[in-house]
Amino acid sequence: MTPEHFSEQISEHHSDRTADRTVDAVVIGLGPGGEDLAARLAGGGWRVLGVEAHLVGGECPYYGCIPSKMMLHESRRGHPDWHRVATRIRAEATDHWDDTVAVERLTDAGVTFLRGHAEIQGGTAGTADQAGAAGKAGMAVGASVTVTPEGGSPQLWTARRAVVLNTGSAPVLAPVPGLPERAAWTHRDVVTAETLPDSLAIVGGGPVACELAQALAGFGVRVTLLVRGDRLLSGEVPEAGDLVAERFRSEGIDVRTHTEITEVSEADATRYESSHGLPTPSGPVDVALSTGDRIHVDRVLLATGRAPRDEVRVDEWCRVLDAAGDPVPGRYALGDMTGAGPFTHTSVAQSAVVAGQLLGANHGVGARPYPRNAVPRVTYTNPEVAAVGLSEDAARADAASAGGQDRGAGGEGRGSDGVRVARVDLASSSRGWIDEVAGHLTLVARGGGPDGGLVLVGATVVGPGAGEILGALTVAVHARVPVAELARIPWAYPTLHRAIGDALGKLSQGA
């Protein structure tokens, strides 16, 4: 293949073993999956080089999953204190954004670590027989990887058996006309802020935008949420975004759909900050909207999604595919760059898939493909939104592409394609009535189980603890447990998850 360049730009930190620059595997990018796989391989007796440009562990522990949930937790306390949570994030969660502990954890596991820039020069890497993988990956021929430490000279390394890519993603920052740099924020600015602005406009309506909107509003920030589309959380069922928007508005968050920024201009400065010894205006800015309205805010937070730093195609074994769709021997990829889902649990699950092939049964690891059909996702707003598998629309499209081969009996929300949908209101359950909750649970099923019976292919839960309720449904979707078998379970009473049994009863009607 032609040389590939992956964006790992860096400073040097490595163990004393770098004098011998032939290893079994090179892992480029040490986000959650890369870090996990490097440690797994080293534990299996492999010599491993791990290369990372930024922080070992990736976005999640330093700027994403962990700090954001800490903010949400604090914002829901009786007397939320930003100083308290900002201090916890610095001192307890991120070590002031220092990954020394993570690096030491890797090197203690036997991984050689370089903070550097990595470029695959050519060649492939592979073993003669990778247990459980689909076919043989070819004899070991070695892949050359150049690593350039910051301030150092390029080093040529040889990976005898595998090169694994895990270069992650970066925020998509849509251009905003006239937005001054000092007023533009990303999620990292929120996480690292010692004080909060009085007011904030958030551009975006996805999970990150929604979680930050509710968290910051809980600390008294006046939040305006600007959504280009017609609803929040457009990747979920419409009722989910509608319920979240209703809750947001009740909490004072100004949710504006079908709205974009057309221009930003400096407003009259009401206060000043010191910059290089000179007074600099700190806000607010005047924001013109596509609706003709204008708002004045201190900061504009851009939360319009993320995109892979490098894109590759992979198969269900996380093997990188060439232009013809064939696996490149000894080349694997994990995480956001594979398109399998921008989640920590996705990347770590893919790590297990690769480890299973490379280490094999001799190390207690079985080779199994990546289960794309049952990847859970949770947005941690109040109410929570959690989903797994296919939505109703996706299930119907999938059935249509299959030519209706698993058509089955009808039911609630039934169609001639055999897809059946059941929806229950959480408030109709005993626990939902007791707790006066707002939310719902939706199950999507289709034929294909034993004797042509129904199996779950998707589920969505909106309400308190939705992410926890989703656990049982994820198992059911992943294992293709027949609906008839699930309906036999005596779901605990009175719990919110008992609503699963109510929905299963609806699915079973007429089956």
Outline the secondary-structure elements:
Blueprint: E1 4-6, E2 22-28, H1 32-43, E3 48-51, H2 59-63, H3 65-75, H4 82-93, H5 100-108, E4 112-114, E5 116-122, E6 143-149, E7 155-165, E8 169-171, E9 184-185, H6 187-192, E10 199-203, H7 207-218, E11 222-226, H8 238-250, E12 254-256, E13 261-266, E14 272-275, E15 278-281, E16 285-289, E17 294-297, E18 299-302, E19 306-308, E20 319-321, E21 327-333, H9 344-359, E22 377-379, E23 384-389, H10 392-401, E24 420-425, H11 430-435, E25 440-447, E26 454-463, H12 466-479, H13 483-486, H14 499-508
Parallel strand pairs: 2-3, 2-7, 3-4, 7-21, 9-18, 10-11, 10-18, 11-12
Antiparallel strand pairs: 1-5, 5-6, 6-7, 8-19, 13-16, 14-15, 16-17, 20-21, 22-23, 23-26, 24-25, 25-26
Helix pairs in contact: 1-9, 3-4, 3-7
Q: What report would you give on this structure?
A:
With 511 residues, the protein is an alpha/beta fold. The protein has 14 helices and 26 strands. Strands 1, 2, 3, 4, 5, 6, 7, 20 and 21 form a 9-stranded mixed sheet that branches. The radius of gyration is 25 Å and the shape is globular.
Short description:
With 511 residues, the protein is α/β, with parallel strands linked by helices. The chain contains 14 helices and 26 strands.
What's the number of helices? Answer: 14
Question: Approximately what portion of the residues adopt beta-strand conformation?
Answer: 25-35%
Category by helix and strand content? alpha/beta
Measured between the Cα atoms of the first and last residue, the distance is 53 Å
Number of strands: 26
Overall mean pLDDT score?
A: 87
Radius of gyration: 25 Å
Poorly predicted regions: 1-17, 127-140, 270-281, 405-411
Shape: globular
DSSP helix fraction = 25-40%
Let me know the largest β-sheet. Answer: 9 strands, mixed
